[in-house]
Design brief:
The chain is built from 19 helices and 21 strands. The chain is an alpha/beta fold and 576 residues long. Among the domains are: 286 residues, TIM Barrel (Alpha-Beta Barrel); 84 residues, Sandwich (Immunoglobulin-like), CATH 2.60.40.1180. Strand 2, helix 5 and strand 3 form a beta-alpha-beta unit. The longest helix is centred in the first third of the chain and has 17 residues. The structure holds alpha-D-glucopyranose. The site of alpha-D-glucopyranose has 9 residues, from loops.
Amino acid sequence: MTPLKWWQTAVFYQIYPRSFADGNGDGIGDFKGITEKLDYLANLGVDALWLSPHFPSPNWDCGYDISDYCDAAPEYGTLNDFKTFLDESHKRNMRVILDLVLNHTSDEHEWFVESRSSRDNPKVDWYVWADTPPNNWQSCFDGDAWTYAPERNQYYYHYFMKQQPDLNWHSPEVKEAMWQAIRFWLDLGVDGYRLDALGTIFEDPNLTPHTVPMNLAELRHFSDLAKTPEEIKLRDQYWHDMFKNQWAQGGLHELMKELRTIMDEYEGDRMLVGEDENIDYMGDGKDELHLVFNFALMKTGGITPEHIRKNQAERLKRLSELSAEAGWPCNTLGNHDNSRIHTRFGDKLHDAELARLHTALILTLRGTPFLYNGEEIGMTDYMLTDISQVKDTMGTWYYHALVNDLKVDPREAMARTAEMTRDKNRTPMHWSNNPNAGFSPAGVSPWLPVNPNYQDGVNVKDQTESPYSLLNYYKRLLKVRKNSPALIHGEYIRVHETAADYFAFLRVSEEQKVLVILNFSNRPYHLNFSDIKECKAHKLHSLFTSAEISPKDQEIKEVRLSPFEVYIGELQSVHA
Ligand code: GLC
């Protein structure tokens, strides 16, 4: 077997810098805070960190509107503070990847300021300009996708907020400028990039209008109210049709290939993971992205055994069409754009048990896992109650559109905004039961309200001290994964394929065979695996269980499973 690359064996942990740890007590997370928590992360057992944007930004989209690609946001610290964070992470054997936003810059970036200034400046075509709005395209964040710039008496295109103008990737100068920025961080030693919104980089050159009989606000409103299967089907169709000409257009593969060539010039296996689920962006497995996220796994109302099996069958088949060691999966259930796992996939009755099952799923499926900060202590969504608290500007935009244009009652508009805004899953991390959850000192107002449930044990300190906490469960599971070659690179083999309540599978490598069973139900089971080829003449030695009592060794023909148990057992030959 070809030795695996670091990004194939690593467990990634996403840090949302604004909300992770406030080292200087100003209510905003920063490098000092992150650096102080590196021992915590190393001790948790993760191997790589994905840092959401840390660049200077006016923060219309929480850092995803970058005004300088080669510096650090002053509220997070200096470039030297970044370097300290990077070095200290490396000293602890943790790699660091950055967020790479290619599609757009901030409207305060000097490139845009110059491009907008006149119709004849050196950067005149660095963005996407038109004399009049050429079509009815919508921005997915704030309505019309074309915004007027009086300086040029022209309109510029933006897929996201109007403060995030799209770069014109057909310009060789844009490419060169961006590649220089990429090299800047690679030269400093970062280990790779997560590619933001790559599907939005190119647009349909024919500028074909969309055919949906609504604008963005109306479509969001319609989506909020859609209940029947017909309405839901129509909703999905409309979302697809509204944006299909602004998404996944020609030119992306060539661009990804160019980017890959730059990464490959550097030593140390620098890597790229795309914010896209389309495996096509991995090219032949060696010439485009190293990884794309398996978003299909999380795009569901509920994580059921049937859904997981179907997802794995499709993904792994498609990945197997790439060269043997290149088609590597990448699994996640949460990030800064989505409702937190604990809330989204809980059932309000067994949330604690389900959270354990979901973590186990991500850490035992074949592929590289990505975890989101706060998941390990069971942080939940926090619903804001007043529009003045909302920081996610797609949320404020929607609220005002609901109230002013669609005449929705302000209270209802706020409830819907709280649901749709991503603030709910970006609130400050809970470090302790001290005021402000130990994120900021007492008396300081953090940039987003702290979820009060930090007082009910949802915090790092309390959970560190409690042996049965979710945090300690994460640590144990991460350790088992690290010490189990089969869980890292073993093949995935489906077993008991029709079981509706539990999901069982084998991970088989040359050195080890492991059986994983995730019981998604509140029923106990006695399961028989003795007729499965790989299990014959084997017994099971327990590597991990979430059950309070569970035998160390079990007969393969009678495996006992408690309600909601996560069981991982190693197959041992009975002839040994
Ligand atoms: C990606 C980011 C999201 C951001 C958007 C625009 O989807 O994950 O947070 O708002 O791109 O950059």
